[in-house]
Design goal:
This protein has about 210 residues and is an alpha/beta fold. About 60% of the residues lie in helices and about 10% in strands. Bound molecules: CO-5-methoxybenzimidazolylcobamide. CO-5-methoxybenzimidazolylcobamide binds next to helix 3, helix 4, helix 5, strand 3 and strand 4.
């Protein structure tokens, strides 16, 4: 019998085969896809972060756990898409320059797409001018930025400044997220909002459309 704790444990171990196996068992047992992510996969990768900080784990192990987590997310993804309700909203999103973390951004994209949003994923390590270009090209209602490093958070401000300078802020809301980001930081840099997780991000994007 699989449970969320077992799923967290195999993410921590970085055992992709086991992560897929336990995730599939949880799916087959009828567990809610979002709970599998929020109560099994995310607590596992968060514990990896804690152990990395304490020096008990190193980058290669963190990488293996990230890969293992992705293996689980891939299995859950089609179930989220099944709830598709079309909306007319368009979101441009990326992880800012200097930052390669994409698990959280990809979860946000998954939730947005499963809620019917049209998402333009700029990927990771996205420079300021690429965000600006994407707003010109795609005319989105929302620009989402993700940063997981305290050293890359200032790039979010640089993007906002560039969008201001090009007069591209009207009609576009800027939402930011990532583990070190706070609502206060969002205010400080002039973002329109901070989303603590993928569900909140999706709700905020829906509100923009109302
Ligand atoms: Co890195 N890493 N990492 N890492 N890594 C952290 C972020 C760290 C906190 C670990 C630690 O020390 N405890 C630390 C940062 C310290 C700091 O800046 N204060 C750190 C470090 C130091 C590093 C390196 C510098 C390590 C090194 O090389 N010495 C290096 C940097 C590489 C780079 O980016 N240039 C590095 C590398 C890596 C890996 C490549 C090994 C891997 C990433 C793999 C990948 O993403 N493809 C990795 C991982 C896995 C982590 C931890 C363990 C987990 C991150 C994660 O995926 N969390 C992380 C520790 C931690 O955060 N607990 C850590 C799960 C994810 C679901 O949460 O991303 O927060 P999160 O996303 C959430 C919300 O924040 C929100 O919704 C998501 C879903 O609920 N959200 C948004 C996120 N983005 C949003 C955008 C939005 C809205 C909401 O827009 C609208």
């Amino acid at each position: 019998m699989s449970n969320y704790q077992e799923l967290s444990d195999v993410v921590i171990k970085g055992d992709i085969k086991k992560v897929k196996e336990v995730t599939q068992k949880l799916i087959d047992a009828g567990n809610d896809p979002l709970s599998i992510i929020n109560e099994g996969l995310i607590p596992g990768i968060n514990e990896v972060g804690v152990r990395f900080k304490e020096g008990d784990l190193f980058v290669p192990e963190m990488m293996r756990s990230a890969q293992a987590m992705k293996g689980g997310v891939e299995l859950v993804k089609p179930l989220m898409a099944a709830e598709n309700i079309p909306t007319s909203g368009k979101v441009v999103i990326g992880t800012v320059k200097g930052d390669l973390h994409d698990i959280g951004k990809n979860l946000v994209i998954m939730m947005l797409e499963s809620s019917g949003f049209n998402v333009v994923d700029l990927g990771v390590d996205v420079p300021v001018d690429k965000f600006v270009q994407a707003v010109k090209e795609h005319n989105p209602q929302v620009v989402g930025m993700s940063a997981l490093l305290t050293t890359t958070m200032p790039v979010m401000k640089a993007v906002i400044t560039a969008l201001d300078q090009e007069n591209l802020r009207s009609g576009v809301k800027i939402l930011i997220g990532g583990a070190p980001v706070t609502p206060e930081y969002a205010d400080e840099i002039g973002a329109d909002g901070f989303a603590s997780d993928a569900v909140v991000a999706t709700d905020m994007c829906k509100q923009v459309l109302i």
